[in-house]
Amino acid sequence: MARPYARGPKQFVFAVGDGNDQQVSVRDPQEAYVAFSAFFHGREADTYTITDERAGQSLVLKPRRGLIARIEDMGRPRPEYLQVERANRLLPGAMLFFENGCAGLDHFGPWFSDLADLDQPPETRGAARAAAITTHAAALDEVARIWAESGYVDPSDQYYVFFDSRGADDDRAERAVLLELIEFLGLARADAPLRGGRRRGLGAHRPPPRRRMRTVVVSL
């Protein structure tokens, strides 16, 4: 069960720019997510805006452009932008906003203050994201997030496998982040085992001090 908002029910406004805004009063982030998910799937629009008027923050989702924008102070709007390569990341981003406002999306990806920066190749954006992560704890959190979205444990119970079912052109920014963080964490790259007569990817391995860690495999 989701933790209720500390100061009682929260009000959010959902809008798509057609004048038919929807205001909801919700007790917790999960209730907010359910309400927005119904709003999102019930319309075809270029832009969806979530506004938290009490906090003075908003989140803008642009599905057709694969873009998220966040505004932390609507009184002095300075949007930050994030490119998402898969549409199924939009609603999880909304959930993070419902949980902890704009700050909840700090680790959701590389944010840029200049929209033109999103024209950079995905690999460049991913490297910039990885460079902003400076502690092992944050790096492990990011690797865990990527694995939760795109990975599984190999049946041999020896490998964490990433992007195994994705094409080489998918998730390029995420792959760049992961490969940089593998190096940052001191993991040694290794070949994946043969499966079905072919190798499934690349990996890395380092036993941690307290327990064995599975090899990290990145399908490229």
Brief summary:
The chain is an alpha+beta fold.
How would you describe the overall organization of this protein?
With 220 residues, this protein is an alpha+beta fold. The chain contains 5 helices and 13 strands. It has helices at residues 29-41, 90-100, 122-131, 136-150, 172-184; strands spanning 10-15, 22-26, 48-52, 57-62, 67-71, 80-83, 151-153, 159-162, 188-191, 194-195, 198-199, 202-205, 215-218. Strands 2-1-3-4-5-6 form a 6-stranded antiparallel beta sheet, with helices on one face. A 5-stranded mixed beta sheet has the order 7-8-13-12-9. The protein is globular, with a radius of gyration of 19 Å. 28% of the residues are buried.
Structural Rg: 19 Å
Note the beta-strand portion.
15-25%
Number of DSSP helices?
A: 5
Helix-residue proportion: 25-40%
Spans of at least 5 consecutive residues with low confidence: 199-213
Kindly state the number of beta strands. Answer: 13
Summing up helix and strand content along with how strands pair, one would put the structural category as alpha+beta
Shape: globular
End-to-end distance = 38 Å
What is the strand arrangement across the widest sheet?
2-1-3-4-5-6
Mean pLDDT reading: 83
**Largest sheet composition:** 6 strands, antiparallel
Give, in order, the helices and strands.
EEHEEEEHHHEEHEEEEE
